[in-house]
Amino acid sequence: MKIAFIGTYAPRQCGIGSFTQHLFQSTGGGSGTSGNFVVAINDPGSTYMYPPEVKFIIDQDDHGTYLKAAEFINQNQVDVCIVQHEFGIFGGQNGIFILTLLHSLEVPVMATFHTVLNKPSYNQLAVMKEITRVAGKLIVMAHKAVEILRQTYGVPAEKIELVPHGVPPIRYDRTAARIELGLEAKRVLLTFGFIGRNKGIETVICALPQVVAQYPDVVYIVLGKTHPNVVKHAGEEYRLFLHRLVKKLGLEDHVVFLNQYASEDDLFKYLAASDIYLTPYLNEAQITSGTLSYAVGVGSAVVSTPYWHAAELLAEGRGELFNFADDTQLAGLLLDLLGHPDKSETLRRKAGEYGKSITWPKTGARYHELSQDLAANAPKAILKKDPALDRSILPPLRFDHIERLTDHVGIFQHANFGIPNYNEGYCLDDNARALLMMLMAYRRTNSDAALKHIAVYLGYLNYAQNADGTFRNFMGFNRSFLDEVSSEDAFGRAIWALGYATAYSPMDAYYQVVQRLFANAVPHFEHLKSIRSIANTLIGLYYYLKDNPSNEEIAECVRRLAQRLYDAYQQHRTDTWHWYESLLAYDNGLLPMAMLCAAEVTNDASFRDVAFESLEFLESHTLSKGHLSLIGNENWYRQTGVPSPFAQQPVDAMAMVLLYFQAYNYAGDPRYLSRLYTSFMWFLGENDLRVSVYDFDTHGCCDGLQHDGVNRNQGAESTLAYLISYLALQHTFEKPYGSIVS
C-alpha cells in the first residue's frame, strides 16, 4: 500500500497536525520503507521546517496549489489518499478549495471528519455533501457523527466507518511527574488545548471558590495558547477576561495559566500529575475532542460537560458529566471526587482499561485495513462514449425565485441572497432576458403563469422604448427611469428577446406589440458599434427571420452585421489568437453563436468557418480541464496576459450552453451536445470550485464563483442565465436532432 496523507502536519501547532503525524507513523510511514508521504497545508503567512515525509505543501489560500497537489499525487502512483477534514484548515469559504483537489484526484479517497455539524450553513452543507459524494470511505470518531452523516447529509451507512481517535503510547509515573512539575503538595485540576470562548473555562473558575474553601491546596492549570483564529479576530480578549475573573474571585493562588503550545511529552506529563481532567465546553455540538481522547487514553479521572464526544467516551463509568455552564453542579462533583479518592481511582481504572483499545498502533492498523479494502474495491472510472446526460441528477424546473423577484412592473435586477433588493430597481437587460426565458418556458409548459409573466416583461420593454426606437435601461423602485438611452449591449439583448417573441409569441395581442417595438428599433441596427450588441442583435434577427423568412431587408441586415463581426475577427486574428478582439471578456460564447446564426441565414461559408474556428479557440481556453472553466471578470484574458480564473459569471456559462446548442443544431455533431451538457453542469457543481451555483433551497442561482467561494446573492441575471440554459438543455431531451427554434 502506498498512501498519501493530506492535512496539517507537525511542527505546525495544530491538533489535526499531530493527528496526521501519528496516523502517518502508525500506518507504516514511520518505517521509512512504505513509500507513504504527506501533503501538508500551510496557514497563511507561515512556513515550517517539515520532516522528510512531507513531499508537497499546499498554501491554504492559494487555489492553484490544490490543483498542483492533486497532480503531484496522481503522478506518484498512490493507492489511496487519506484527507483530514476540518473547515478551517482549507482555503475559500468554509474550506471549499478542498473540493478542487478531491475532484482532480485519480485515486480512491478516504476522508476523516474532525467536525460533523448537525446544523450546517448552506456553504458548509454544500462542501460536506460533495466530500461525502467523492470519498469512498468516511471516518468519524463518534456514533453521533454516524447518525448525523446519515440523517443530515444522506450518507449511506456502508460508506461510514467509526474509528476511535488514537492515543500515543506515552506514559509517566504519577509521583515522578508531580515531583518534576513541583505539584506534589497540590490537588491538581487540568484543562489543556487551544483556548477560546467555546471552551467554558470560566465555568471551572466560577466553581473554584466552593472547592478552594474546603480544599485550599487545589490548583487549576490551564495549559494552552489562545487559538490562532481567535487571536486573529479578537486578540487575547478571552484570556484577559479569564484573568479578570480570577482576580475578581480572589483565586490568583489557585489558577495557573500556562500560555504555551505544549509538546505531547509535556501534555502527558501534566495528565499524569493531575487529579482531575476537565473539559467544560459550552456546546454539545463537538463531535471530536483529541484532548479528551488523550485524557481517557492514559487513564485520567475526567469530568466534562455532555458534548457529543464526551457523552460517548465517558459512558459506562469512564468519567463524570455535568450540565453546560453549571458551575454549582461542577463544584459538587469536584468536592465529591476530591473527598472520595476511591471514586477518582475507579474512573481512572475504567478509563485506563478503555484506553488500551484506542492506542495509535490499533487505530493505525484499522486505517491501513480500510485503505486496503478501499483500494481493492474502488470502482474504476467508466469512459462514456455517448453524450448522454443522466437526467435524474437535474433539479425540477422551478420559478420560485423569479416569482420573488418580479412585481407588476418587471423583474428586479439584484437580490441580497434570496431576497429582492428594491434599492437597485429594474433594468432593460434583465427584463429582456426574463421575456426570452418565459417565452421558452411557455413553449414547454403552456402555463397561465408563463403567459402572465410574458405580459409583465413585454410591458417593461414597451414602456422602456423611446419614441425614436431606442430604449432606456435603468428604472428606480419609484418607477422613474434613470437614463435616457440604454447601452448598446442592453439594446442588443432587447432585440434578441423581441426577435424570439416574433417567432414564438403565444397570442396575437403580444405579437402585435412585439412587431411594433421591433420595427421602431430597426433603424438603429446599422449604427451599432459594440461587437456584443451586434452579436445579440444578430441572434434576435435570426429568430425574427424564422417567422418572416422572406423579409429581404432583415436578411440583408444580418449579412452586413455579420460582416462587421467577420472584419473584427480578421483584424485581431493571429496564428495563436482566433478571436474578435484582443481579449476574451464576457458573453464570449455569443460571438461565435451569432456567426453560426448568420451562416445559417446567409449560407455564407466564410461566416461558418470563422464561427467554428473561434468556437474551437474559446473551447481550448474554457474546457481543457474536462469541465467548464470560465474566463473571470477580474482582468479577463488579454492576448498578452493570462486568463483570470475568477470571478466567473453564470451569464457566461449560459452563453456556452447556447453556443453549443446552436453548433449542434447547425452541424448535427454529437460532440457539441456532449459539450453543451458539460457546460450546463457548471451550474450544478462541475466547475473550478466544485460547488453548485444553483441554490436548491431558493431555486435561484448564485451570482458567481469568487476566488474564495460562491457569491450567494441571487440576482435576476444569474437566475435567468440558469433557467435559459436549463430550458435549452431540456429541449435536447425531446428533440435530439432538433433546434430550440424548430
Automatic annotation (TrEMBL):
Protein name: Glycosyl transferase
Family annotation (InterPro entries): 6-hairpin_glycosidase_sf, Glyco_trans_1, Glyco_trans_4-like_N
Domain of life of the native organism: Bacteria
PANTHER family on file: BLL5144 PROTEIN, GLYCOSYLTRANSFERASE
UniProt xrefs under Gene3D superfamilies: Glycogen Phosphorylase B (3.40.50.2000)
Keywords of the record: Transferase
Pfam short name (any one): Glyco_transf_4
A molecular function GO annotation: glycosyltransferase activity
The Glycosyltransferase subfamily 4-like N-terminal domain, residue ranges: 66-169
Limits of the Glycosyl transferase family domain: 177-354
GO biological process terms held by the UniProt record: carbohydrate metabolic process
